[in-house]
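Example 5.3 — Acyl-CoA dehydrogenase
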Amino acid sequence: MGNYFLDNEDIQFLFRHIDLKELARLQEAYAANGDADYVPIDEEDAVDNYWRVLEIVGQIAADIIAPHAEQIDREGNKLNEDGTVTLHPLVRENLRRMAQADLMGFTLPRKYGGLNCPNLIYTMATEIVSRADASFMNLFGLQGIAETINAFASDDIKDEVLPRFARGEVTGAMVLTEPDAGSDLQAVRLRAYQDETGQWRLNGVKRFITNGCGEILLVLARSEPDIQDGRGLSLFITERNERVRVRHLEEKLGIHGSPTCELVFDDTPARLIGERQRGLITYVMALMNGARVGIAAQSLGIAEAAFRLARVYAHTRQQFGGPIERLPAVAEMVTEMKIAIEAARALTYETSRICDLENNNLRILETVPDLPKDEQKERKQLARTLKRINGMLTPMSKYYASEMCVQVANDAIQVLGGSGYMKDYAAERYLRDARITTIYEGTSQLQIVAAVRGVASGSFESYVADFENRVYGDKLLDDLRNELIEARKRVQEAIQFTKTQSTTYLDLAGRRLVDSAIICIVGHLLLGQATANERKRRVARRYIEHRLPELEAKCRQVLSGDMAPLEEYDVLAGPVPALA
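Solution (predicted structure tokens):
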């Protein structure tokens, strides 16, 4: 019997290292428990329950989901003539086992049958499931749809739909993108109108919809035909019926167990979620922020699986009179893979922690009418602070973890050599599955555009200030902290330079600025971890000393002011080639 939680020392370390009691206290404050059979008696009981939940996830991931992954990848799902999709039998078995374990309402309130777990615990669970099968995460990991319904829908809709999510009776889909509106959701054209009875109906086509065959569909549609930008969009809920059909199942490079659908809506009846015109600006942005942290967790899971395969192979493969892990080039590659995963995990889990603090603070502000005025004032100020930090960390973690994932999966094939290129090993599947993580829920380039605004506006500087004031009482750690302080000053110098240039230059220099800020933030997070054990001390030292020269080079590039990719684009890119 395996367990993908109990065999992962770093996830367990972070579970103990992060102040989960604080999160549990906030999560349980004024929680909507209804008549739930179990409610934790205090923070310790809640944290103990989180551990037990992750144990169950880890066991199902290892014993059920992972053994199914190869067959599901080879065989995929089936599109039927009537516009429905039949999920692979093993996908349905995975869903059944997760529902049987009460894991399909992970973050929902107990009054609806959910577990009321913080998003940080859900992030851990998502990583564990993704290590077993990244494509199945795209079904398990869509619970943000239920969270969006819980946050913004009417009580009638919540009471009707959310218990079904928690019981695992339904799965959902975020129905956002269209053939001519991919990343640019303001260009959505799917029409929403009210018929003579006042019933909302949907007409149009959506494309690249993950699990578009799910039973509950959250659809972004244009309810105000005279308003052409995002202000004309509203969010709707509809259920699978004869007036919405899957026209096409995409043939994809990877994540074959996750059906990616083209949907046709034909006067499909729907109900409004929340208020008109807030579909994109408020509801979808909240939905996508959660989804982006989910993709970061998915990236961690794929990278963890790829690393473990490479680590075992490097240890057992004999060449030149010994295991190949003794070859310097391989040894460095394997250690860099491991450190990269732990760095991305530190950032992603910290982002999830900040998300929990922000969400719970807002929940208390919105649902507790008799808060003392002083507390209300403090919470409003905290809400503004956390929103700024989250607005920077969420795109950072999605960008950093997904790019790391592709690199680690690629390096895993390199460690395995020719064997990694063959289907005899899962390494090639990991790389195929990894590649989508830098694309969906917003490409890496869009994440950089979002993150660099926080970096340049002061959120980065204010966020790291607390870390810079820490005294470790350990010469190595204090020296490394001082190096990070000097590095941050170098980043600030580069930021100030961009402010003297055109706004276009900020976007051009964005990746280098975001990369540099991430190095500082992750360095501080690893220093905090280094106080707990000797191995983490060495991880922090290696990461900081190895990454700071990269930061210096990136800042020098920003300070050069080079605009050649834009000013000399036609010369450098060359003429547009003819495609055969």
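Remark. The mean pLDDT is 96.
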